[in-house]
Specification:
The chain has 984 residues and is α/β, with parallel strands linked by helices. The strands form seven sheets. Strands 1-2-3-4-5-6-8-7 form an eight-stranded mixed β-sheet, sandwiched between helices. Strands 11-12-10-9-13-14-15 form a seven-stranded mixed β-sheet, with helices on both faces. Helix 9 runs parallel beside helix 10 (316-331), helix 12 runs parallel beside helix 13 (431-442) and helix 15 crosses helix 20. The longest helix has 23 residues, at 191-213.
Length: 984
């Protein structure tokens, strides 16, 4: 929507104020500035507002708008007078307006910083959170225009509007004057206002997902008249899954007299159905999709799953087609899964939705699965099915032009049917938001992520994402900081998901290993060490072990207070004829499950080699039905160890009876405590029932089981730490001059800063860093030997002579640094050697610096990545650390815990803490420096890069020997502004 020439010419139409938002009920709407073209829309909107709402707005009966009113409400200068409208289907459903006023309440211009604000919401749309969303956006506009406070007059009976202001979280004052409530809101965002905004965002986006995966009715647009084809396949899958709602088939080519197809009502359009349709699955060619979307939007469809291809994955023309699809759908208040999607599945008994191309719905379970790839989705569904795992929900979003993994994190956060979230992602459309949502979700349930397209330049076609300059290793570190379990392959994702969905979290890294194969136990032991776990020596039950032996050994290990988790290894027994036999897996599974259910809640994983039926039996959930007791005395005696073949197990023939209890879904659990054990009541003389047993994950290789267990250990540790969040120490406030730094940054950037930014000179950088308590050791230029000697005399011996030429900076290995020069003769000799070896002084730009106390050379950096945000990094200085990529990263703002973890998470960390008898460095001083750098870039987004190199950390204190700072106009912070959907 662009203004006409009548619009104020000196203030261009602010198109960056336009935004799509999700409302409380999950529908979407568009917020945009009101222009002079909106006169008819405004009049039509006002006619649909009730007399009561008009009275609340104008404090008097006001049946219609005069021509003067219409002109006033549609002509704005976008500075002192601003109006925003909320539209659905191109028509107004709400408006808000502010007028800048002075201290007496009269119209004013800047520098007046107060404005009067008023809202009007159509009655049919009240209760949808429209006014709350409008308040967020008009407040952001006002702050941009230099307005710091809103004033509002509200009638006491207008409780809804008073609640909107009261619940916004802004600092406010209330008074009662002349029969009205006078409200004053301070528009500076507060922790409470941000929390309110994000809570509303979570509820709205979760509801928008729920509308898509729990519909009361589904229409398949593009249902073929003949068997086969995408639309007919989806319809067949809907029916086969037993969808509990109403189903319709839609195809414009159906004959006028065709009433049904596959027993489902057949219609030529959505409009012909004559009943509400919640979800439409669109399976028509791309050029016919706009027609289908219009039909859906005009008849109240709430959401779309677009299976059609031919969009951004096909190039520039397809990208524009995809953008138009999103714009069109959102204009009607609809959200989209897709295009180029594989579909959605919801296994809830209340829904039983399979609106996908998957021929069979996976079993019900506690895992939520999101994937951006249909092919990967098929592979994951197959793998989970083979492993006996169940899903709560499955989504394959294709090009994810609208609904993304972020939306499903919002939904899964409070979904009682989902205990673990698995995501296969090829791109992150909003990395900052993903990190924030993942951290919150991971605090209550595990989030496991596989990131495809990890290397630069390999973003999949069809995905519009911001360009990130940080390497994948940094992305992985930042995910782990947020509690995300980052794995490399989909197989590892399934392995971890199975363990986390069905087992409790381990209390620590101490692992017990037991089994009937010494060799397999040793492989498991080695795998534990490689993953940083603390395994106990494997317990060899010998090859003669019976299921009862396994049961007793597992019960003993679980009861041991020095054990946090157990890995059980099992191989087939060998018959008397020397042939391996793999039966009776069900009996062993029953024994293991009974032991696991009877002991303390600790995770158990099984590594097996071709034991028939074991994995399936372990994966099946059992009821509390009575099962035959596992016999003890009937097992054959173990042969003499000297004559028993290696890894030979005697067949437990007397234990062939196994539980035939019917399978059922696992008991719902609290997130993070997935193994509940419930005993059924028993009376006198009754056969004791076994508890409801959780599934025990089984793995075909020790390395896979241990890797999954190691991820669970690290995640559990993160959960424990996240329960008591870190903080920024208060002592920093006394030594930081935030206002002075801000003024200096403004002066350095100037009134018209270069968008590319500028690097500060040495003195400028030192001055700015000094305002945050960061002192850089002085250096003096040495353009010739005499100047070097004079500089050394001023600084005091011993000194260092260093080159500062860009190609030699921080390259001691190239001979550009001379240390411990104790006198003038040594300095002159070093100067001559330096220039003879590397070039003229004008090329080398040498400087003299006094020597710092001996210590460990480190590097501290902070950068602003356009995709991930501000990142704080730490590592040791030198080529080895750079070559090995041994650098740790944390998101800014960093807490005291982040700083402590940062210096301890690099592989070379032992060097800082007394490695090989050396004295430990002053880690507290190093942590404080990291926190100061973090505060600098967090307080001043114009600081886009800081590098302190080297930072010499001694046993007491540290010395910053070099520093560089780069400033630039601050990048946009989409994560801090009012709620809005991403634009594609």
């Amino acid at each position: 929507m662009q203004p006409t020439p009548e619009q104020s010419p000196h203030h261009a139409y602010p198109d960056h104020w336009e935004a799509d938002v999700v409302l409380r009920d999950g529908g979407t709407a568009r917020i945009r500035p009101i222009t002079t073209d909106d006169a008819e829309r405004l009049v039509s909107f006002y006619e649909q507002v009730s007399d009561e709402s008009k009275y609340y707005r104008f404090f008097a009966p006001y049946p219609r708008l005069s021509a003067k009113d219409v002109h006033r409400f549609t002509h704005h200068d976008y500075v002192d007078r601003v109006g925003l409208a909320v539209t659905v289907g191109g028509e107004f459903i709400a408006t808000v307006r502010y007028d800048r006023i002075d201290a007496t309440g009269r119209p004013a211009s800047a520098p007046a910083d107060e404005a009067e604000v008023a809202f009007l919401v159509q009655d049919a749309h009240q209760g949808r959170g429209v006014a709350s969303a409008l308040l967020e956006h008009i407040a952001a506009v006002a702050r941009e225009r230099g307005i710091r406070r809103f004033a509002a007059e509200v009638l006491p009976a207008n409780n809804k509007m008073i609640k909107v202001f009261r619940d916004a979280g802004y600092t406010q004052q209330r008074s009662f004057e002349d029969g009205a409530v006078h409200l004053t809101l301070d528009l500076e965002p507060t922790a409470e206002s941000l929390a309110v905004q994000r809570a509303r965002e979570q509820r709205a986006e979760a509801r928008s997902v729920q509308r898509l995966i729990a519909p009361g009715s589904v229409a398949v647009i593009g249902t073929g008249r003949n068997p086969g084809g995408v639309g007919r396949t989806v319809l067949r899958n809907l029916l086969a899954a037993g969808f509990t709602g109403r189903t319709y088939a839609v195809n414009s080519a159906f004959a006028a007299d065709q009433a049904t197809i596959d027993g489902v009502p057949a219609h030529r359009s959505i409009g012909e159905i004559g009943e509400p349709v919640d979800l439409a699955v669109v399976a028509v060619p791309a050029d016919r999709v706009p027609e289908a979307v219009t039909d859906c939007g005009e008849h109240g469809v709430q959401g779309l799953v677009v299976l059609s291809a031919g969009y951004a994955e096909w190039g520039a023309e397809g990208r524009e087609r995809q953008r138009e699809l999103v714009r069109q759908a959102r204009s009607y208040g609809m959200r989209i899964i897709g295009p180029n999607a594989f579909g959605v599945i919801n296994n809830s008994d209340a829904v039983r939705l399979n609106a996908s191309l998957a021929p069979e719905s996976p079993a019900p379970g506690r895992i939520g699965l999101f994937t951006q790839s249909g092919a990967i989705g098929i592979a994951l569904l197959s793998g989970l099915y083979r492993r006996g795992a169940g899903l709560s929900t499955f989504i394959s979003a294709g090009n994810r032009a609208d609904i993304s993994g972020n939306d499903f994190l919002q939904y899964w956060y409070e979904d009682p049917d989902t205990d673990v979230a698995l995501l296969y992602l090829e791109s992150l459309g909003n990395p900052r938001k993903f990190t924030r949502l993942a951290r919150r979700t991971a605090a209550v349930k595990p989030v496991v992520v596989v990131k495809g397209a990890r290397h630069s330049g390999s973003t999949p076609p069809g995905h519009a994402v911001p360009v990130s300059r940080i390497p994948d290793a940094t992305v992985s570190a930042l995910m782990r900081q947020a509690g995300v379990i980052r794995v490399d392959t989909v197989t590892e994702m399934v392995d971890a998901g199975l363990l986390l969905a069905d087992q409790p979290l381990p209390a620590g890294p101490r692992i017990a290993i037991l089994g009937n194969s010494e060799s397999l136990g040793l492989l498991t032991y080695d795998a534990c060490l490689a993953e940083g776990l603390r395994p106990r020596p494997p317990r060899d039950l010998t090859t003669a072990a019976t299921p009862q032996n396994f049961r007793d050994a597992l019960a003993e290990a679980l009861a041991d207070s020095n054990c946090d988790a157990v890995v059980v290894t099992a191989i087939p027994w060998v018959g008397e004829n020397g042939e391996a036999e793999s039966g009776d897996g069900e009996v062993l599974a029953a024994a293991l499950r009974t032991a696991a259910a009877s002991g303390p809640a600790k995770p158990v994983a099984v590594v097996h080699v071709e034991i028939g039926g074991l994995a399936e039996a372990l994966a099946a959930a059992t009821s509390t039905a009575a099962v035959p007791p596992v016999a003890r005395a009937s097992a054959p005696a173990a042969p003499d160890a000297s004559t028993a073949p290696a890894d030979r197990a005697v067949p437990p023939t007397a234990l062939a009876a196994s539980s035939t209890a019917p399978a059922g879904p696992p008991t719902p659990t609290t997130p993070g405590d997935h193994l509940t054990r419930q005993w059924s009541d028993t009376g006198p003389g009754d056969t004791p029932a076994v508890p409801t047993l959780g599934r025990i994950p089984a793995y075909p290789a020790a390395e896979r089981a241990v890797r999954a267990l190691a991820e669970a250990v690290k995640y559990a540790q993160w959960r424990r730490q996240a329960a008591v969040p870190g903080k920024v120490p208060e002592f920093l406030d006394d030594t930081i001059d935030e206002a002075g730094a801000a003024a200096r940054i403004d002066a350095l950037l100037g009134p018209d800063p270069d968008p590319r930014g500028r690097s500060l000179g040495h003195d400028e950088a030192c001055e700015l860093l000094g305002r945050y308590g960061i002192t850089v050791r002085p250096t003096l230029p040495a353009p010739d030997p005499d100047a070097a000697v004079a500089a050394a005399a001023r600084l005091g011996y011993p000194v260092a002579l260093k080159t500062t030429a860009p190609h030699l900076r921080h390259r001691a290995d190239l001979g550009g640094v001379r240390l411990d020069l104790a006198n003038e003769a040594a300095l002159r000799r070093a100067y001559g050697e330096l220039t003879d070896l590397l070039g003229k002084p004008t090329e080398l730009q040498p400087v003299v610096q006094s020597m710092a106390p001996r210590g460990v050379d480190t590097v501290v950096r902070a950068t602003i990545d356009p995709a991930a945000g501000a990142v704080l990094s730490f590592g040791l200085a030198g080529a080895p650390s750079e070559l090995l990529g041994d650098t740790a990263h944390r998101l800014v703002p960093a807490t005291d815990r982040d700083a402590a973890e940062l210096i301890r998470s690099i592989r070379a960390a032992p060097v800082l803490f007394g490695w090989r008898g050396s004295a430990p460095v002053d880690s507290a001083a190093l942590e404080e420096l990291l926190l100061r750098v973090s505060r600098l870039v967090d307080d001043h987004p114009e600081v886009v890069s800081v590098a302190l190199e080297p930072v010499v950390v001694a046993t007491q204190g540290l010395t910053v020997l070099g520093a560089s700072v780069r400033l630039a106009p601050p990048p946009a912070r989409t994560d801090l502004g009012p709620r809005r959907l991403s634009n594609y």
